[in-house]
Amino acid sequence: MPQHVRGVVARAKGEPVRVETVVVPDPGPGEAVVRVQACGVCHTDLHYREGGINDDFPFILGHEAAGVVEQVGPDVTDVAPGDFVILNWRAVCGRCRACRRGRPQYCFDTHNARQRMTLIDGPELSPALGIGAFAEKTLVAAGQCTKVDPAASPAVAGLLGCGVMAGIGAAINTGGVGRGDTVAVIGCGGVGDAAVVGARLAGAVKVIAVDIDDRKLTTARSLGATHTVNSRTTDPVEAVRDLTGGFGADVVIEAVGRPETYRQAFYARDLAGTVVLVGVPTPEMRLELPLLDVFGRGGALKSSWYGDCLPSRDFPMLIDLHLQGRLDLDAFVSDTIALDEVEEAFARMHKGDVLRSVVIL
Ligand code: APR
Ligand code: ZN
Ligand code: ZN
């Protein structure tokens, strides 16, 4: 029986989002209906409602979510009703070239929820990042559900579904931070702060946080940064070199998404160091570097897509570390809100006041 639930919908470009009645169909083959318990508010939700991703309005927003599987369709074996799960926005196919080579984090054919949820008055909804979890219930591909320890709070678990995983994964997966490394993180919003936490988790001995906002640097320090640099007043490349005996950091993580910060990241790394771009650039952005500087420095320039995560491997591990008190994730939940407060949360996010507002259902 299709169910009627409340969900946050962006009807048209730039229009404030509203809570509307959404019809959730029964799960088909390979699908699951999840009762959402918590869903974080991410910049990408705002990008959807601003028409910055595509024009497939109306959208049902929300994609950093955790909840309980309520129903599964035929052929679903990995999850069952009652399982506590984190949702991910890229269920891997298992068949493409990347998957067959054992690197499913680069899957070419990830599949997400099919767009079968509708508004009560008819139009089909496009789920943001294939999830659509600012809703009491949502229909997803079963592969988007990863079972984790239900002792974790839904708010914290949900955040692992996107921004926090992107940051931690940039450090532990893409950057390959190791014990004793020095790491610099440029841009300490939610993603950069998660990279700070990831660098600590991986055993970095020095974690240098760089931002233009002192409030952000204070937070980064409370999450484990050992040094902070305000790049509005201090040249961050020189500061990182000064802090590393003139060499530069082993891994530099850029979490802003601008050519000038990427350039800073490039020059702040050690000769054989790694630069990881996590910040998402816009299509018109360009980066010009003297080839001799690229050639002469070795190391690696990498981008990190979803923290190069494998949900089935990384979500349960990070939840377990969190439950053991070895990974502080509570600090990322700066406030909890109701379903009808998402529009206000966008405004707060814009002002840079919060790490994450999380909708609790
Ligand atoms: N130099 C250093 N820090 C900067 C600069 C700059 N020139 N410009 C902005 N910042 C800082 C901001 O002060 C803020 O702390 O970068 C941080 C960006 O944080 P958020 O706006 O909270 O964004 P976040 O959610 O962390 O995402 C960062 O990663 O995944 C991507 O799409 C995401 O591109 C975005 C980036
Ligand atoms: Zn997100
Ligand atoms: Zn694949």
What does it look like?
The chain is built from eleven helices and 18 strands. The protein has two domains: 3-161 and 328-360, Alpha-Beta Complex (Quinone Oxidoreductase, Chain A, domain 1), CATH 3.90.180; 167-305, Rossmann fold. Helix content is 26%, strand content 26%. Strands 3, 5, 6, 9, 10, 17 and 18 form a seven-stranded mixed beta sheet that branches. It has a six-stranded parallel beta sheet with strand order 13-12-11-14-15-16, sandwiched between helices. The chain is globular. With 361 residues, it is α/β, with parallel strands linked by helices. Helix 5 (190-201) links the parallel strand 11 (182-186) and strand 12 (206-211). The two termini are 22 Å apart. Bound molecules: adenosine-5-diphosphoribose and zinc ion (2 copies).
Keywords:
alpha/beta; seven-stranded mixed sheet; 18 strands; binds adenosine-5-diphosphoribose; binds zinc ion; ER; ADH-like_C; metal-binding
Radius of gyration: 20 Å
Helix content: 25-40%
* Alpha carbon gap, first and last residue: 22 Å
Number of helical regions: 11
**Ligands present:** adenosine-5-diphosphoribose, zinc ion
User: Order of helices and strands, N to C?
Assistant: EEEHEEEHEEEEHHEHEHEHEHEHEHEHE
Record field, number of beta strands: 18
**Dominant shape:** globular
